[in-house]
Amino acid sequence: MTGDTRSAPGSDQERTQLPAGFRLRHEPPTNAEYVRLRAISGLSPRTPEQAAGALSSSWAWTIVRSADGGLAAMGRVIGDGTWYFHLADVATDPAQQRRGLGRAVMEDLIACIDAAAPPDPYVTLLADPPGQHLYRSLGFVDSAPSLGMRLPR
């Protein structure tokens, strides 16, 4: 979708335009690409076995490929497809950051949710500090008084 501008979810603004040569795709990355991009972008490392479940069991994927076909950015949605949607694994290759790729992935995933979900879906994510500015600029707010929690293993 190089050069494609679309309306941003929930606004009259235009969606982020990808730089020349980049392509937005609705497919998962390969297992090796997923493991590599998580590691180089600062997300917690995952094994190929863990990646297999993420790749096959997600509700939606959006990736961005560079002109040479390499994985430049990714993100996915997990959820039930009607009410609950959780954005996960949003990552951009450090060599490709600050080009709007992460924003394009987020806008596209939100648009997929908006197109499929009944009114008022519950859309969540866990925001590490590097992504918080982007997420807030897209309309995400802190979930207080709720607090994200996890079960360490």
What does this 3D model show about the protein?
The protein is α+β, with helices and mostly antiparallel strands. It has one domain: Aminopeptidase (3-Layer(aba) Sandwich), CATH 3.40.630. Helices cover 30% and strands 20% of the residues. The protein has four helices and five strands, in the order βααβββαβα. A five-stranded mixed β-sheet has the order 1-2-3-4-5. Helix 1 (31-41) packs across helix 2 (48-57). The protein is globular and about 45 Å long.
Indicate the CATH topology.
Answer: Aminopeptidase
Radius of gyration over alpha carbons?
A: 15 Å
Number of domains: 1
The rough form would be described as globular
Order of helices and strands: EHHEEEHEH
Provide the β-strand percentage band. Answer: 15-25%
Helix content: 25-40%
* Overall residue-averaged pLDDT value: 90
Number of helix segments? 4
Query: Reading side by side through the largest sheet, how are the strands ordered?
Result: 1-2-3-4-5
CATH superfamily: Gcn5-related N-acetyltransferase (GNAT)
Structural class: alpha+beta
Runs with pLDDT <50, length 5+? 1-12
In brief:
It is built from four helices and five strands. By secondary structure, the chain is α+β, with helices and mostly antiparallel strands.
Fold blueprint:
Layout: E1 23-25, H1 31-41, H2 48-57, E2 60-65, E3 71-79, E4 84-92, H3 101-116, E5 122-125, H4 129-137
Parallel strand pairs: 4-5
Antiparallel strand pairs: 1-2, 2-3, 3-4
Helix pairs in contact: 1-2
Which descriptors apply to this entry?
153 residues, alpha+beta, Aminopeptidase, 5-stranded mixed β-sheet, 4 helices, 30% helix, 20% strand, globular, disordered N terminus, Acyl_CoA_acyltransferase, Acetyltransferase_Butenolide, GNAT_dom
